[in-house]
Amino acid sequence: MGLGGNLIWTSVFDHMAKMGKPAVACALPLLSDLASGRLYCKDKSFVDDQIFRLNPNILHIQPIQKSPQIALLDRIFEKLISPDFIRRRYERFIFEQSLKLRLKEDKPQLVHIDMRIHSYAEGQSYNKTIWKTGGNTAHVIVKEFGYSIPQQKCSLWFTKQEEAEVRELLYNTNINSPFIAVEPDTNTDWFGDLRAWPMENWQELINNLLEKYPNHQVVQIGLGKTGILEGVLDLTDKTSFRSAALVMKKSTLFIGTEGGLMHAAAAVDAPSIILWGGITLPEFSGYPHLHDIVCLYVECAPCGNLGWCDFSHRCMKGISVERILSSVRAVLQENKGVE
Fold first, then answer.
1. 155 assigned to some structural domain
2. CATH number (domain holding residue 283)
3. Most exposed among 167, 217, 279, 303, judged by the fewest C-beta atoms under 10 Å?
4. Same domain for 128 and 220?
C-alpha cells in the first residue's frame, strides 16, 4: 500500500485503541511460524516503520531472527501460496483464527497489514483497479474486525529532535512564516500521470500566489521529479517523508494532489487544498471533513485506470487556476485572516 496506505492503517489502529481494543501490527505467518504456534511472522516487526514509529496506539512484536534453513523453507512456502486465489484463502484462514484467538483469550487483535484481503481494492485486472464500496478506505478495512470509522483520520508522531531538525532546515533555507507548501509531483507507479495537474497550471498558480500574497513564501516539497517551479523556495529531495510532514505542519497552507503527502497533511492537521482527479473519489480515500478538495466529479469517476484515459484526462485538466486561487483565498481568510 505504500506510505499513504500505512497512514490509512493508522486510522484503523487509532480507532481500535479508542474502542479499548489495542492491536498488534504484524505480517502474515509462514510455515515455520505456524509450526511454532504463531499466527504472525516472528522475524518481521513494524516498530521502526516511518509511519508507525512512536505511535502509542500500535503494539508491536519482538522480532526473533530465523535461521537460514528455516528462512529458506519459508520462502519456498511463500512461493507456493503466491497465486492470488491460494494466498487469499490462506489469509482468510489466518484472519479468522486471529479473530477467534482475540475472542477466546482476550488478547490484542493481530492486524496483518500485508494481507491482500485487507486492501481497499476489490481486485485488479491488467489495466484497471476495482475499488471496494461501503465507506472510506479505513472503514472498509476496519469493518472486517467489527468496527466502524465514519470519517478517517490518520496520525503521525514525532520526536522533539525531528521537530528541531525541521526548524533548523527552514532557518538555513531562509524559509519564514507565513509560507505556502506545494507538491506538484504524483506517484506514477500505478496510475501514471492520471492524478497529476499540468505543470503549466502549477506555474501559473505560483505566479499568482507570489503576486497576490507577497508576504507569503512558496515552498516546493516532495521529490521534484517533474521539475522545480520558478519562484519557489526549493526543498525537493531535501526532506524525508516525516520531515516533509513537519514542514506542512508549520505551513499556512498545503496545496497538492491525491497521494502520500495528502495523507500526511491530514495527519498533522495542515490546512490543505487538494486537487482531485477521477482514480478514486474524495469520499473514499480523501479527507473532505478536513481538507478543501477541488474535484470535478466527472461521469467516468472513479475509474481506477492504470495509467490510461479515454477522455483526455478531463478530471484534472478541467480544474482551472482561478478555481484553486478562489480556494486559496477562502482557506487563508478562514485560518489566518488574510484578505
1. no
2. 3.40.50.2000
3. 167
4. no
Which residues have CB under 8 Å from 20's CB, separation 6+?
A: none
Q: How far apart are CA 269 and CA 254, in angstroms?
A: 10
The tens digit of pLDDT for each residue in 62-85 reads 999 999 999 999 999 999 999 999
CA-wise closest residue to 76 among 31, 119, 117 = 31
Contact at 8 Å (CB) between 209 and 324? Answer: no
Q: Is the CB of residue 98 less than 8 Å from the CB of residue 109? A: yes
Sign of the CA dihedral with 164 first, then 223, 256, and 338 last: positive
Residue tagged 478562489 (cell numbers): 326
pLDDT tens across 146-160, in order? 999 999 999 999 999
Overall size of the chain counted in residues = 339
Separation of alpha carbons 92 and 77, rounded Å: 17
This prediction's pTM:
0.94
Question: At residue 255, what are phi and psi to the nearest 5 degrees?
Answer: -120, 120
